[in-house]
Structure formats: C-alpha cells, structure tokens
Amino acid sequence: MQHQKLTCDDASTLETEEQTSLLEWPRLSSPSYSSTRPAPRWVTVLGPTQVLVFPNFLSVQDTGSLIEYIQQEMKIQIDDKIDPTKPRPRPVPKPGYAFRDNDRIQFQSEEFASMLWNKCGLRDRWTELWQHPKYGLESVHGESITSGPRNKKRVRHAVGLSHNIRMYRYQTGQSFGPHYDESVTDISDQLGETVSEYTVLIYLNGERDSELLGGETVFYPKGMKTLPAEGAGGASGKQSKKGSKASVSASNNQENNSSSKSNGNSSNSGSSFSYVLPNGGVAVKPERGMLLVHKHGDDCMLHEALLVNRGFKYVLRTDVVYEP
Ligand SMILES: O=C(O)CCC(=O)C(=O)O
Ligand SMILES: [Fe+2]
C-alpha cells in the first residue's frame, strides 16, 4: 500500500494561531542525581540513531508543574472559547497534512528552549550520547548526527532547541494520525541560522501515574509491509489488542536494562518502553518525564499518536536544531 506523504500542520498553524503564553510558564529544575537516584541512560528504540528515549528526564515535580500550567493556559486559550452546548469540532486536515486531533498551545520562547537545553541538561545528555562509544560518530557511519541533509560529509553541531514550544493535551478519543515531521530552517539572534533535525517529545504523564490508557507514539520503520490503517487515528482501532511485548531495542539494551534496575525500578527495562503492534509498528508508551527523540526531515519515519482510550495525555514538543 502506498502511503501519502503527510506532514504535520505546524507551518500553517504558525501563521494563523495565537502565539502567546498568557500565564507564566514554570521554571524547571536542573537534574539532580545521587546514589539513591542514579542518572538514567539513553535507550535505543529504533537504532542506531532513529528513535531514542531517556527515562526520567524531567522530575516528578517539573512534570506536575507543566501539566498544571497546560491545564490553566488551555482553560483560557481553548476551553473558555468552546460553546459547551455544541459538539466539539472534529478537525478536517488540509490536503497534504495529517489528521491531528489534540489541544495545543504554542509559543516562541528562546528562554524556555534554553531552560530545557541548558538547565534541564539536554545539551549534556546530547553530548554524552554522541560521544558514547556505542552511538558515537565512529559507530554510526552514515547516520551520524553530525551529517545532515545539506552536506553529508561536513561535521555539524547541535546548537540548541527550537524556540517553537508546543504543548499538547490529548483528551479521551483524540489522536494524531500518521505523518512525517519536517525539518525547519530558522534564524534567530541567539542561534543564528539553524536547521531542525530531531523531534523532541517529553511525555508529562503515563499509565503508571495517571488515568491515561493508550496514546502510544508508533513508528513505522521504512520497508515495512503493513502500514497504519487509513483514516483518523491510524492503527488506533487495533489498539485494544496489544501487540507482542517483543523488544525492538538495539544492542545496548542489556546495559540500559541493568542501569534501569539500579534505579530501583525493575519494570523499567528497555523492552517495557516499546513493543511491536500486529501491524508491525513500534509503539512507545508515554512515561512520566520521559524524553523521546526521533530523527526528522528527510530521514523521518512515518509515525502517529494512537487514540487515548482513557484519561488525558500531556506532551511537550520542540526540536533539536543544528548549525546549517
Ligand atoms: O503526541 C505524540 O505522541 C506524537 C506527536 C507528534 O508526532 C508530533 O508532534 O509531531
Ligand atoms: Fe510527529
């Protein structure tokens, strides 16, 4: 089956939607690890550099403050504008754009992006990742983070995060259909010209700490025989039949399993972050505070967010940007 190349509708909404944060967003903390709370590690979901997760990137306190902020901001920006006597509109995607049914606030903030990159430690995590002997430049020829679509040979460096900050709330019944995330070229006083290369998603809640059921982010590796069901929510119709719990993580799994166990959370093994659906998609379950990064632009995998079957799913979204 040929799948139409659908992208998410960021570019169009950038021009039309309100771009402000009315309330003050929370100041997030620096990571603090100790012998009782050892630093978590990167776990490869689809390797070597396509999809990776970093559990407990944000603290419980920070995810709580962000959810509270999203709830309050959305009450003003979205819910207060909705007429409760009328059914909620079902979004109709523009041609070429993916079906996206979630509530979203979006604002431009150099300060917020810098807080996540510098203070919350993503810059250090990124450096550690690309200097790691298993992921580092030597071991990922051709997929190296420093080679980009513009010039495969030149070494390029990550310089920060996109200032375009997006926060999603999926209500029960909402989903984000199959799509590709596009790479965006931007220019700012702080970073100069940049090209986005990786999508950053931070899950603010999960099934273990909230009512949430469902809402997995699913990736369809290239060359797969089966693809998502057409229509809203993609493969979500099959979601109640959970896929096999097979691990699709790369070879570093052992190492990461043991480090997760030393966190005192033995269920947090590499395999518990992802599983394979009957249609071959690789599903990542939202976990409170977990960071997910995936390559986007030309190398983006088709992906979708499955239907939320119960409760709410809260996600923070930005991108890692590179020098051009
Ligand atoms: O909410 C998710 O799990 C995925 C979001 C996504 O694909 C996007 O923001 O482009
Ligand atoms: Fe996406």
UniProtKB/TrEMBL annotation:
Keywords: Dioxygenase, Iron, Metal-binding, Oxidoreductase. Residues 230-272 are annotated as: Disordered. Its cofactor is L-ascorbate. Residues 245-272 have a biased composition (Low complexity). One of its GO terms (cellular component) is endoplasmic reticulum. GO terms for molecular function: iron ion binding; L-ascorbic acid binding; procollagen-proline 4-dioxygenase activity. Residues 161-322 form the Fe2OG dioxygenase domain. It comes from the Eukaryota. PANTHER family: PROLYL 4-HYDROXYLASE ALPHA SUBUNIT, PROLYL 4-HYDROXYLASE ALPHA SUBUNIT DOMAIN-CONTAINING PROTEIN. This is Fe2OG dioxygenase domain-containing protein. It comes from Lobosporangium transversale. The lineage of its organism: Eukaryota, Fungi, Fungi incertae sedis, Mucoromycota, Mortierellomycotina.
